[in-house]
Prior knowledge:
single chain; alpha/beta; five-stranded parallel sheet; 9 strands; globular
Amino acid sequence: xxxxxxxxICYPYKHYMVNIDSRIDEIEKAVVKGEYITINRGRxxxxxxxxxxxxxxxxxxxxVFSLSFERMGEAEFGTDDALAYNxxxxxxxxxxxxxxxxDYVRNSIKKVVEDNSEKSxxxxxxxDDFFTDxxxxxxxxxxxxxxxxxSASNYESFIKLLRLLREKYLSRKLTPTxxxxxxxxxxxxxxxxxxxxPDSDHQYNSxxxxxxxxxxxxxxxxxxxxxxxxxxxSDHHTGMDTTLIAQMITDYTSxxxxxxxxxxxxxDEQNFSWDKEGxxxxxxxxLTERCPLFTELFGxxxxxxxxxxxxxxILDGRYISYNNYVDGLNIASTLNIITxxxxxxxISNKIFETRFKNFFEFEKRF
Length: 366
C-alpha cells in the first residue's frame, strides 16, 4: 500500500504524489537544446525528487551522471586536487546506474580513480582533457546533474570547477563537452565570483553566467493535489470530497510541496477524517511541531536581522515592494517564504504566515 512521504525522494510506485511529468518534460527540452541550467528553490520544495525522475527520463537518450554534494565539506573541497578526485569518484559510483555508458567511459573513470586512490588526489588540471576525452568517446552525449551545490559554494575549488565547465561550454563547437549541466540548490550560484589575477583591473568574474535559470513554478497545483487524493480515495474509500479537500490544502499551503504532503500524511497516520476538521487538525500539528524546515528558518532569522525585519514588516501589513535584490527580501524570496502579489511582497502561504506570527508573539513575551 502506498503512503505519503515528506522525506527524501518520492516514488510513484511507493508514494502518493502529484504528477510532475510536465515539469520533467520542460527541463528535458532545455537539455535537448544543450542548455546549462540552475534550479533554485527553498528547502523541501521537490528539487531532489524532480532531479531523480529527470535523470530517469534522460537515461533513455543520454549518459547521465546525477551527483549530490550533500554532506561534503572541507575534506572533499579543501583543495583543487581533492575536489578533482572526489568529483570523479562520485562519477565512478554512479556508473552502476549510468546504463548508456560504454566501456571506454566506464574504464576511464574507474582507472583514474583507482590509480589515485592512495592519496585521494587528482591534479585539477587533468579534468579539462579528461572531460573532453569522455565526451568525445561516449556513444551518447553526457548530462551532468549536481544536487545540493550549496554545500560547495563557499569553496574556491568548486568555483574553479564552474569556471572550467563554463570554458568548455563556450568552446563546445570546437571540443566535445557535456550536453547539459544542471546545478540545483537553495541559493543561486550564478552570482558567485572567481578571483582571476591580483594585478588585474577586473579581479572577479562570474563562472556561471552561461546558465539558464529554471523559473517555472514548482508549487503543486490544486488539480494535481486532487488527482493524488483521488488515487488515495480509490485505495481507501474514505468518502472524501476530493475537490473540497484539495482546495482546502491549497488554501493553507499554496502548493508548497512539503506542506501538501505533510497535511495528507498527518490525516492518514493520525486517522483524522478527510474533511474540513481533519485538514484543520493536521495544520494545527504542523504549526507546533519542530520540523527541520522551521528550525532552519528561525535560525536564519536570528543570523540575518534584515530577513527577520522584512518578515515582521510584511506581517504587520506594511506595503513592501517585492524586490529580491533587497537584503532580507532576497533571502525570503530564495527560500520561497514570500511571493510577488501584484508587485507587493506577501508571505507565500498561510502556514508560514501563522507560524511566523506565533514566533513573533512568543518573542514579545520574553
